[in-house]
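Contributing new complexes? Match this layout with heme C.
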Amino acid sequence: MTLFKAALGFWVGVLVAVSAPAQSSFFKDADYPLGEKLIAENRCVACHVSKVGGNGNAIYKPQGRINTSALLRGMVEQCNTELNLGMFPEEVNSVAAVLNRDHYKFK
Ligand code: HEC
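Output block (do not edit by hand):
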């Protein structure tokens, strides 16, 4: 039985590894569920919607001046400071990683 569980665990791990979308190594330590939670909690989208309308996604401009992972993380850090959000560096990293996965898609 334990052998069965170990084997099952192994294959589930392989499946997760294979099905996970390729992520930029820049964000390799990111905690995606944490990033999603922080984006929801900090009303990022609500404010962006009030600026650009729709679902707010138009605020994210991958072809704009934010055109690398480093600049994206820097931008989130800047918002963090300006809006006094009090996020820790690993939280900023996770938020930026979610934005990259869903919008910017930098390598
Ligand atoms: C009080 C309003 C407000 C809040 C809250 C806010 N933003 Fe923004 N954000 C803006 C505005 C306005 C811009 C456009 C600035 C510009 O184009 O110069 C922007 C731009 C951005 C950009 C750059 C878009 C691009 O590609 O140029 C990112 C990334 C971003 N916000 C992330 C966040 C995140 C993450 C949060 C929550 C943690 C957040 N913002 C919360 C108002 C807000």
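Reviewers usually confirm one structural detail per submission. For this one: The CA atoms of residues 27 and 104 lie 13 Å apart.
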